[in-house]
Amino acid sequence: MADLTSTFVGIKSPNPFWLASAPPTDKEYNVRRAYEAGWGGVVWKTLGEEGPPVVNVNGPRYGAIWGADRRLLGLNNIELITDRPLEVNLREIKAVKRDYPDRALVVSLMVPCEEAAWKAILPLVEETGADGVELNFGCPHGMSERGMGSAVGQVPEYIEMVTRWVKQNSRMPCIVKLTPNITDIRKPAEAAKRGGADAVSLINTINSITSVDLDLFAPEPTIDGKGAHGGYCGPAVKPIALNMVAEIARSPETRGMPISGIGGVTTWRDAAEFMALGAGNVQVCTAAMTYGFKVVQEMISGLSQYLDEKGVGLSDLVGRAVPNVSDWQNLNLNAISKAKIDQDLCISCGRCYAACEDTSHQAIAMSPDRVFTVKDDECVACNLCVNVCPVEGCISMERMDIGATDPRTGKVVPAEFGDWTTHPNNPMARAAE
Amino acid sequence: MDARQLAGGIRAGRLEPQALEEGFSDLHPPYDDHEALVAADRCYFCHDAPCATACPTSIDIPLFIRQIATGTPEAAAKTILSQNILGGMCARVCPTETLCEEVCVREVAEGKPVEIGRLQRYATDRIMARNIHPFERAAPTGKRVVVVGAGPAGLSCAHRLAMKGHDVVILDARAKPGGLNEFGIAAYKSTDDFAAREVDWLLGIGGITIETGRMLGRDLTLTELTSDYDAVFLGLGLGGVNTLGIEGDDREGVLNAVEFISELRQAGDLSALPVGRDVVVIGGGMTAVDAAVQAKLLGALNVTIVYRRSQARMAASAFEQELAQAKGVRIICNATPKGVHGNGAVREIEFEFTDDDLTPTGESFRLPADQVFRAIGQSLVTEGLPVLAGRKIAVEGPGRTSLPGVWAGGDCAAGGDDLTVTAVAEGRDAAEDIHATLMR
Ligand SMILES: Cc1cc2nc3c(=O)[nH]c(=O)nc-3n(C[C@H](O)[C@H](O)[C@H](O)COP(=O)(O)OP(=O)(O)OC[C@H]3O[C@@H](n4cnc5c(N)ncnc54)[C@H](O)[C@@H]3O)c2cc1C
Ligand SMILES: Cc1cc2nc3c(=O)[nH]c(=O)nc-3n(C[C@H](O)[C@H](O)[C@H](O)COP(=O)(O)O)c2cc1C
Ligand code: SF4
């Protein structure tokens, strides 16, 4: 059993699986049960300033999309920050932290964009013994209409300013949670760094409408005939989150800045992928909301088995794939592959044929008795057939040997690397040095 | 149909080797990787899952299936084996249709459960194929425990005790360990010498010695064991077989179903194993079905199970009954044996129809038979044992018997179903109690 102990911005936890700030971490009852189930840490549901708490809608606040067999793939919500009084939350945080000193407990905060508001709340949080704060600059609905959440997260200058206030008024580690509702994720990350943030966490939810009621003609979830856009999360957002994490991890401006990876983490493998792309730990919301706190047990056993089999420690995993995240222009155009169909595994459904024939390169042949074969002289190795094949491992990409002739182009596969920067068709091509 | 199948009497070689091989191949063939993923995907990861509650060893089924779904069958196996060290055998022999799969929410909703047994086999096969033993022994305690009986109950108890750091000696009367896993379970449920391979794998924990050919009551007494060891666990199973108690019960050709099965399980070459042309099996449980089906698979022409009550009351599950019928076994119900007729060897067996309360109807019939199997239950050989409850050893809580320092579990202990998985659960729980007692 690999050692999963994790240290993130100085905060120790028995494993790198934290619950993200959201309903699973909204109260003492949940958080105690989450720790008992094995979660390494939690980011408490976002607290607002003192005074009457926000109110939530009293109708449906979630919408969803499903895959086959009604597997939940994407969740959308219009929930606000905590709707429980500040002092109740603070009292509970203190009690939980006292009883679980070995688990991480970070408190998420969102107060108005005024230094006084931050100055007021930080000492109260510090007093609970919590391990750190996370600044919620991500919530894309409701709170953003009031100038908070993603309204701050979309303006790098505000991020920098608020982060600086927090660092000046508190000794706690400060994680800045970013919104994905922005064109270039590096900018807010750089702003957080300039403001003195210890880390960034991402992603928060993505602006979304999951579906439209075609009788009421209203977006879902619908409240009294109307709907508002919500925030999208769950397995469907993982690819978007992975890219954003990688962008920050490989950018010269932010390289080395600790990242807490969030967005669709559902299994150990998702977590390992985030970590390989530079996340020091991961946070989970939708998977816990779909399957309950117990899902963490699979994440723990799976990550541990993976590390054991690879013979690496948890910290060796972090960032291991970052050097291989490249720009398109640096991909090797001389690495030539062809699709290959394993006839023993093929079940003759013909999906690869339809896909390639109708929408790709007409590179799959179909015989009258439904044998499907790749035409090497047409195949551009796009991978579409692999992706649509229902049988895992049935179609694979085989790299051509150096010196062989590509029947599609009639050219010999060169031994040397050659990318777009040096390609003759590139008007800006630089001569190879 | 050829002459060899039609020939009367008990004879070998009724079928071609290839037909034998096909018949005795895996009842539920193992999943390949793709099938396992598709099957695992159907699990809903239910909260407080009914399947796990229905499992006598309380395996965390949703968790292990999720571990298969996420590509870590080894972790899945560990989840299984930490509750049930014979999870591999149980995956093959458990009547899942009356246990976990019966209560699967998808069985209830759609009539098609997640195939838990086959998924369990997929995971446990994987870890055994990789020769991983995922448990380690605790520091030695210096305590010595003797386990009598190397069946599922004894093996499970011994493994848990060894894991806790105790030294364990298992004594078994037979020449091979495994109990009914080795000698009783139908051949098509435990192919490729699985029972023996599983025992070898289980012993990988260390700290367990098995002494075969050592019989309690013949070679040693319970008093000797209690004075020589810190604790004793009895996992004796049921060695005796109930007799029909009718005239002709001792005729040539009338034998115990369990002996027929055990001979079959140990036979190197099934084409050398003799079987009758007209076989009659008396009983209504798993043993009756197993004997009948295997007789049929050996090439018996007519195989009939005769049970004294209605089919609904047969102890064999609906699945087992259907299996027998699919293999061509005829099931006659509400008939009680009255006499075994023949001139030396059995030639016919006579029955009288009864109602469900076994009241005779006066209507009788005869079936031709050159081989008759008794499958009307096994019994405990009881000399020199702790106090009994009925015909089994009385136990309290986790297997405590009337004698201090002596625990019992599995088929020989009162309470619980006579199933492999129940024996495993009882052996494990007794081990936990023995450990707690010894370390007090
Ligand atoms: C034909 C048949 C088919 C079955 N099929 C299934 C099935 O498909 N699924 C299922 O779940 N269950 C099945 N069962 C039931 C299952 O096999 C038993 O419930 C299980 O084996 C009980 O385990 P045990 O350890 O208590 O006893 P056993 O498996 O009977 O083991 C007892 C061991 O103790 C040894 N022993 C006995 N007396 C002494 C002594 N005096 N000294 C030393 N050693 C001794 C024996 O040699 C034996 O090895 C079947 C049973 C039979 C008979
Ligand atoms: C119902 C709901 C409420 C949420 N509330 C908050 C919040 O109060 N503060 C916050 O920082 N993020 C909030 N989030 C966003 C999550 O913390 C997380 O960033 C997002 O759901 C992506 O992770 P996931 O794909 O694992 O769900 C909320 C998400 C959901 C579904
Ligand atoms: S999950 Fe269902 S029952 Fe629970 S609060 Fe929401 S709507 Fe109500």
UniProtKB/TrEMBL annotation, chain A:
Residues 337-369, 370-400 form the 4Fe-4S ferredoxin-type domain. The keyword tRNA processing does not apply. The keyword Oxidoreductase applies. It is an enzyme of class 1 (oxidoreductase). It comes from the Bacteria. GO terms for molecular function: dihydropyrimidine dehydrogenase (NAD+) activity; iron-sulfur cluster binding; metal ion binding. It catalyses: 5,6-dihydrothymine + NAD(+) = thymine + NADH + H(+); 5,6-dihydrouracil + NAD(+) = uracil + NADH + H(+). InterPro entries: 4Fe4S_Fe-S-bd, 4Fe4S_Fe_S_CS, Aldolase_TIM, Dihydroorotate_DH_cat. One of its GO terms (cellular component) is cytoplasm. Its EC number is 1.3.1.1. Keywords: Iron, Iron-sulfur, Metal-binding, Oxidoreductase. NCBIfam families: PRK08318.1 (NF006183). Belongs to the dihydropyrimidine dehydrogenase family. Involved in pyrimidine base degradation. Catalyzes physiologically the reduction of uracil to 5,6-dihydrouracil (DHU) by using NADH as a specific cosubstrate. It also catalyzes the reverse reaction and the reduction of thymine to 5,6-dihydrothymine (DHT). Heterotetramer of 2 PreA and 2 PreT subunits. This is dihydrouracil dehydrogenase (NAD(+)). The lineage of its organism: Bacteria, Pseudomonadati, Pseudomonadota, Alphaproteobacteria, Rhodobacterales.
TrEMBL record, chain B:
Residues 144-427 form the FAD/NAD(P)-binding domain. It holds the Pfam family Pyr_redox_2. Gene3D superfamilies: Alpha-helical ferredoxin, FAD/NAD(P)-binding domain. Residues 23-131 form the Dihydroprymidine dehydrogenase domain. GO terms for molecular function: iron-sulfur cluster binding; oxidoreductase activity. It comes from the Bacteria. This is Dihydropyrimidine dehydrogenase. It comes from Alloyangia mangrovi. The lineage of its organism: Bacteria, Pseudomonadati, Pseudomonadota, Alphaproteobacteria, Rhodobacterales.
